[in-house]
Write a structure and sequence with these properties.
Blueprint lengths: L4 E2 L6 E2 L9 H11 L3 H10 L1 H7 L21 E3 L2 E9 L3 E8 L4 E8 L7 H15 L9 E7 L2 E7 L4 E2 H7 L4 H20 L13 E2 L1
Antiparallel strand pairs: 1-2, 3-4, 4-5, 5-6, 6-8, 7-8, 9-10
Helix pairs in contact: 1-2
Length: 213
């Protein structure tokens, strides 16, 4: 029997293995509060209401939800040159957002480390190492890294935004034809082989991490 986990802060349902037992929004807010970044914690509380309502049902009743900037078409949060528009995924180390890079007026993906300054030095080093390692890979089927930075204590890096669905979502709907499946396997194998040649091992290669454009 599968046990349902809940965010210890707001009570929202969590995926198995959620970091610190909290949803992404609450974890980011807790990290900002712990680091003494009250202004950032407030911005997450006020500007990320629609995401809090999605991940944290308890926040849906908050009166500020009516005036949520995200609902009005404004960014969830501005991090230097980047406007975070919508969360598109999260994992053990960070949350990934669809964002707009203002200086170049283009859509990118931005991965923000959960916890910010609240995280240990080792965790921050792993996060930066992930970005630096991925930035060394230049292959048409591997997402390219553009920028690495930090904003108000939150480490982040930007990368290509691939608009599409992941392989897990696609295969849940219906089986793939043999020809289509073989094509996907070939593309994934070629990209993985290239990474191996560069001395890089992807330790979390699974259908949900394969995005189809």
């Amino acid at each position: 029997m599968k046990m349902v986990q809940h965010c210890e802060r707001c009570g929202a349902s969590l995926s198995v293995g959620a970091p610190e037992g909290m949803c992404p929004v609450c974890l980011l807010m807790a990290g900002a509060e712990a680091a003494g970044l009250e202004h950032l914690a407030q911005r997450f509380g006020e500007q990320c209401v629609d995401k809090a309502a999605e991940h944290c049902p308890a926040a849906a009743s908050d009166e500020t939800a009516v005036d949520s900037p995200a609902i009005a078409g404004k960014p969830l949060l501005v991090m230097g040159d980047y406007e975070l528009l919508a969360e598109i995924g999260h994992g053990g180390m960070g949350a990934v957002y669809r964002a707009r890079q203002r200086s170049l007026n283009r859509i990118v993906a931005v991965k923000v480390m959960l916890g910010g300054q609240f995280a240990s030095r080792a965790a921050m080093a792993r996060f930066r190492a992930e970005a630096e390692t991925a930035a060394q890979l230049q292959h048409p089927n591997i997402v390219a890294i553009h920028d690495v930075g930090e904003h108000d204590g939150l480490p982040f890096f930007s990368m290509d935004y691939v608009e599409g669905q992941d392989l897990a979502e696609l295969t849940r709907r219906q089986p793939l034809s043999a020809q289509t499946a073989a094509g996907y396997v070939q593309a994934i194998a070629e990209a993985t082989h290239y990474a191996h040649q560069q001395g890089v091992l992807h330790r979390d290669l699974k259908p949900s991490n394969v995005i189809l454009d």
